[in-house]
């Protein structure tokens, strides 16, 4: 039986992935880095966070706050783990039971639909979180695309190719420590003077030109993107839609079987337009956003300086996006951020050191035939 497996190790302090050999032992994992350093992970201290579905990379974590992590591409690793130490491997997913779990999931989905119909008026808020965690990512992506078509229509988007690549470069650095995320993140800038940004289901992030012009460094935009990425990863918008939208959207989300999720796009856009994230959602996006910045080696102080500048400017948000109106952070929010940022160790790497950041402020400018700047 195979006991040695190849994988990657992240120490939780830097964004560097180290190639390692992982040996399955009776009571724990023996990890050896390329430099010869050995680590010992007792099974009782290890938790599995990904690798529950066919084709998904296995991710194991150890520790709280910003944990250490192992990434193993072969799902057979879990099968071998269960064979070597069946009494201790019960805390980890067993691929052999995947078919059984699929049947149980289907039965559970049918049961949830019945309960939802019976308890519609008081049951939806309670089950919104549970249902959101079960929505297929592909369905989320179709719904998010439809929402963005309504709230950020193509004619209003700023598509300067060079500056778009600059923003994409920031997003690449930011999300490189999320290799197992099921989402493909897409950032678009719209020609709107409001100082705002929002995340739609499925990985869509929309940044308004007014917010882009407010940023004074790449690290500040990275902080905004980190915050919005966490709204996507934690499925905050999806949860709100399921809780407040119509029964049709709820049932489609439960089954993932709507032939055309875009049919709910206008309804979802209107729903998001009159809602706002809860304080818990915002605090979670802040905390996890800071951790994402730290893991990527980006100066997390950018989140503090950006929110402080908004507080000083007293900028507002447009009426149709009230659900993000908590973004101009109050004093207590900045205090929380400073406490979180204080956890960053070492000197972060400066983003885009050779780029004059004010150039990004021209993202939505076009020129006429005489080269004069105009707004689209």
Write the layout of secondary structure elements.
Blueprint: E1 4-10, E2 18-24, E3 28-33, E4 38-42, E5 46-50, E6 58-62, E7 68-72, H1 76-84, H2 98-118, H3 120-134, H4 137-151, E8 157-158, H5 161-175, E9 186-190, E10 197-200, E11 204-208, H6 209-214, H7 218-233, H8 236-244, H9 247-255, H10 265-274, H11 279-295, H12 301-313, H13 331-341, E12 366-367, E13 373-374
Helix pairs in contact: 2-9, 3-8, 4-10, 5-7, 7-11, 7-12, 11-13, 12-13
Gyration radius (Cα, Å) is 22 Å
Q: How many helical elements? A: 13
Terminus-to-terminus distance: 64 Å
Q: Return the average pLDDT rounded to an integer.
A: 82
Structural class comes to: alpha+beta
Helix content estimate: 40-55%
Q: How many strands appear in the DSSP assignment?
A: 13
* Strand order in the sheet with the most strands: 4-3-2-1-7-6-5
Helix and strand run: EEEEEEEHHHHEHEEEHHHHHHHHEE
């Amino acid at each position: 039986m195979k006991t040695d497996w190849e994988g990657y190790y992240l120490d939780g302090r830097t964004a560097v992935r180290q190639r390692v050999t992982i040996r399955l032992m009776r009571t724990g994992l023996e990890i050896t880095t390329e430099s010869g350093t050995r680590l010992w992970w007792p099974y009782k201290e290890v938790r599995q966070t990904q690798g529950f579905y066919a084709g998904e990379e296995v991710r194991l974590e150890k520790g709280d706050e910003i944990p250490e992590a192992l990434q193993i591409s072969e799902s057979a690793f879990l099968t071998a783990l269960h064979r070597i130490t069946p009494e201790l491997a019960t805390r980890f997913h067993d691929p052999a039971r995947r078919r059984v779990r699929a049947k149980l999931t289907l039965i559970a989905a049918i049961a949830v639909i019945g309960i939802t119909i019976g308890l519609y008026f008081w049951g939806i808020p309670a089950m919104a979180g549970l249902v959101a965690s079960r929505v297929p990512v592909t369905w989320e992506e179709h719904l998010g695309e439809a929402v963005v078509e309504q709230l950020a229509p193509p004619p209003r988007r700023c598509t300067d190719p060079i500056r778009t690549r600059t923003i994409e470069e920031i997003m690449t650095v930011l999300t490189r420590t999320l290799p197992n995320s099921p989402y493909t993140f897409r950032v678009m800038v719209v020609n709107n003077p409001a100082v705002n940004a929002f995340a739609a289901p499925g990985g869509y992030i929309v940044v308004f030109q007014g917010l882009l012009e407010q940023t004074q460094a790449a690290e500040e935009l990275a902080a905004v993107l980190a915050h919005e990425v966490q709204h996507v990863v934690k499925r905050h918008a999806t949860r709100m839609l399921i809780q407040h939208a119509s029964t049709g959207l709820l049932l489609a989300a439960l089954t993932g079987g709507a032939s055309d999720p875009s049919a709910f796009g206008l309804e979802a856009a209107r729903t998001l337009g009159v809602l706002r994230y809860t304080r818990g959602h915002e605090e979670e996006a802040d905390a996890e956003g800071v951790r994402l910045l730290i893991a990527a080696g980006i100066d997390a102080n950018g989140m503090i300086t950006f929110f402080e500048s908004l507080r000083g400017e007293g900028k507002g948000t447009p009426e149709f996006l009230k659900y993000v109106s908590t973004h101009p952070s109050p004093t207590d929010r900045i205090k929380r951020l400073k406490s979180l940022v204080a956890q960053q160790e070492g000197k972060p790497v400066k983003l885009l050191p050779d780029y004059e950041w004010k150039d990004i402020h021209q993202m939505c400018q076009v020129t006429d035939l005489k080269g004069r700047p105009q707004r689209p």
